[in-house]
Amino acid sequence: MSLSRRTFLGISAGALAAGTIGNSLYEPHEIGVCQVSIVLNRLPSVFDGLRIAQFSDIHFNSFLTTSHLDRAIDLTNAEKPDLVIITGDFVTAAHRRRERKIKAEQAWPCAEILRRIEPPLGCFAVLGNNDYGNDADVIAEALSTGSRIQVLRNRASAFERNGARLWLAGIDNVTANRAKPDVALRGVPKEECTIVAVHEPDFADVMRKFPVDFQISGHSHGGQIRFPGVGAVYLPIWARKYPMGHYQLGEFQLYTNRGIGVIGLPMRFMCPPEITIFTLKRQG
């Protein structure tokens, strides 16, 4: 039976659309591990080669299942990082005020799974806008109690080796107007190498004015749905300038992680979930 050109094009377009939708439903489960070398001028030589794992935007129980998070942790542990940093949005914000407590409580089963993370220097986190869209204090308590994650809310922690120090500062959520970088960096010597974790990547334009070397962020999901020649269909505020990947801003560097969860729709297209493994290198 012969087909008209119009019928053939219609069938082809339908098949392409079906294939695209099918792939976009499958892609959220295809977590990639991205290896990134970061050269820092001020990195003490004793920290040369330090490996940091970052993942972000879990959105637990909002399409992301226990098995999916287990997979992410297995991939992270397999890389044997020295340190793990999670950059916010452990749960998804409730649509109704009366549901906020219920959504926040999802952090407890999430934290139970996160207990399997095994880095020798510990696991640290900052909170995201969705965490503040529920009850940030409940989420911080679940993480620090259930999984022993240190939640850095405008404070810094130092790692020391042979008398040299590397600092990690956590900036509280920007969207919720809780970010206080001057407070977080209080007590951090200006001449010492400092990494900063901020949920929202576009806050880099503020952080680069401080004596900070490298910022890691999430929030954007990389756009979640991307098309060739178009890019992301939608990006949230505070993630439109630096939506994904590595940015060199003078002496300051930024990396935006695509996240491992999804929000809005259980789909990704040309934007797979990501765990990032940073290897810190000393300049020269």
Description:
- There is one protein chain.
- The protein is α/β, with parallel strands linked by helices and 284 residues long.
- It has a single domain, classed as 4-Layer Sandwich (Purple Acid Phosphatase, chain A, domain 2), CATH 3.60.21.10.
- The chain has eight helices and 14 strands.
- It has helices at 5-26, 66-78, 100-105, 107-114, 129-132, 136-146, 181-184, 204-207; strands at 32-40, 51-55, 83-87, 123-126, 150-151, 155-161, 164-170, 194-197, 214-217, 226-227, 231-232, 245-249, 252-256, 274-282.
- The strands form three sheets. Strands 1-14-2-3-4-5 form a six-stranded mixed beta sheet, with helices on one face. It has a six-stranded mixed beta sheet with strand order 6-7-8-9-13-12.
- Helix 7 (181-184) links the parallel strand 7 (164-170) and strand 8 (194-197).
- Helix 4 packs parallel to helix 6 (136-146).
- The longest helix is centred in the first third of the chain and has 22 residues, at 5-26.
- The protein is globular and about 50 Å long.
- Residues 1-5 and 7-22 have low confidence and may be disordered.
